From TrEMBL:
Residues 3-55, 56-106 form the Myb-like domain. GO terms for molecular function: DNA-binding transcription factor activity; sequence-specific DNA binding. Transmembrane segments: none annotated. CDD domains: SANT. Its main location: nucleus. This is Uncharacterized protein. Residues 3-55, 56-110 form the HTH myb-type domain. It comes from the Eukaryota. Keywords: DNA-binding, Nucleus, Repeat, Transcription, Transcription regulation. InterPro entries: EOBI/EOBII-like_plant, Homeodomain-like_sf, Myb_dom, SANT/Myb. GO terms for cellular component: nucleus. The lineage of its organism: Eukaryota, Viridiplantae, Streptophyta, Embryophyta, Tracheophyta. GO terms for biological process: response to absence of light.
Length: 229
DNA sequence: AAATCGGTCAACCGCGACTTT
DNA sequence: GAAAGTCGCGGTTGACCGATT
């Protein structure tokens, strides 16, 4: 069996852009297939991780504020190392980010200050604040309505739902074949105009993914893509 | 100035759970 | 119902960078 060589290590901006454009079109699922058809030479797992931890819209990336910090400590105490669950309570933060932050900052801090001010604050003075945050965020998630900066993501997310579910039931061969057809079509048509110079022979387009999302005929392409007739 | 150390964080790995065939 | 494929999670690694010696 032939083992294909998969790229590892740090992602290049070019790869990020390519991944973003494919996720915008195909949605956040079937990562293995997406990885294959994108021509990135990465594993599906790697693509998913990059998207979830770095490229996904509305991720915060900046330093954690005091509230977030306290919430993490509080939730870690309640839930243990269930970083994915904790991350769901902190909009814009990823499980990986929280896990790293816990390991490098909070764990030590909690140990050092065990029995001291920090612990005392967590257990008493800031309890209300923490509970407020938990309640607020939980409520938002449970109703499916995410406040402020997450609303944009919710819109994008739900826009993926506009893809007929049945299309996703198409499996590997026809699915991938269709996507490859689409790529060829895209190269001929879309790239044939203003993007011609940005597309190379491998089908890679060095193109701002925003143009896919915001372009007026963006989903028209997906329409033709999923139309198997 | 160079070497070493320690902190940070992006990315990888292994595994279990879930889904699809 | 079994096997294969896929996803998601948590732990770990390694590259990078600033601080210290």
């Amino acid at each position: 069996m032939q083992r294909e060589h998969l790229r590892k290590g740090t992602w290049l901006q070019e790869e990020d852009e390519q991944l973003t454009s494919f996720v915008a079109r195909l949605g956040e699922r079937r990562w293995d297939s997406l990885a294959k058809v994108s021509g990135l030479g990465r594993s599906g797992k790697s693509c998913r991780l990059r998207w979830m931890n770095y490229l996904r819209p509305n991720l915060k990336h900046g330093p954690f504020n005091v509230e977030e910090e306290q919430l993490i400590v509080q939730l870690q105490k309640q839930l243990g190392n269930k970083w994915a669950k904790i991350a769901k309570r902190l909009p814009g933060r990823t499980d990986n980010e929280i896990k790293n932050y816990w390991r490098t900052h909070l764990r030590k801090k909690a140990q050092v200050q065990q029995g001291g001010d920090f612990k005392h604050k967590l257990e008493s003075g800031t309890q209300d604040l923490n509970q407020q945050s938990i309640d607020m965020v939980s409520k938002d998630y449970s109703t499916g309505k995410v406040s402020c900066q997450d609303s944009e993501w919710e819109t994008k997310d739900s826009s993926m739902d506009t893809l007929p579910l049945s299309d996703w039931e198409l499996r590997r061969s026809p699915y991938e074949t269709r996507i490859l057809d689409w790529i060829a079509e895209l190269k001929k048509g879309y790239c044939g105009k203003e993007l011609e110079q940005d597309c190379n022979s491998t089908g890679k387009c060095n193109h701002n993914p925003q143009e896919f999302e915001e372009g007026s005929d963006s989903w028209d392409y997906s329409g033709s893509l999923w139309d198997m007739n």
